[in-house]
Specification:
Elements: H1 3-20, H2 26-62
Length: about 60
């Protein structure tokens, strides 16, 4: 099987798989995006707090 034939078959299979995908509705997409943004923000705040706390602990140890 030639390279061009294999590429054509791959593209055809990808196209068929995309047709089977159940895409989310606009509302589902907006809700999922909001959840991701909120969780990312909360996690960033938590990790920032841990970073500051550990930096202070290390600073006191090194004194």
């Amino acid at each position: 099987m030639g390279v061009v034939t294999r590429i054509q078959e791959f593209v055809r299979e990808v196209y068929l798989e995309f047709r089977r995908v159940v895409w989310p509705s606009r509302d589902e997409l907006i809700n999922s995006t909001a959840v991701v943004v909120v969780v990312t923000g909360v996690l960033a705040l938590f990790l920032s707090g841990v970073d500051v706390a550990l930096a202070r602990v290390v600073e006191r140890i090194l004194r």
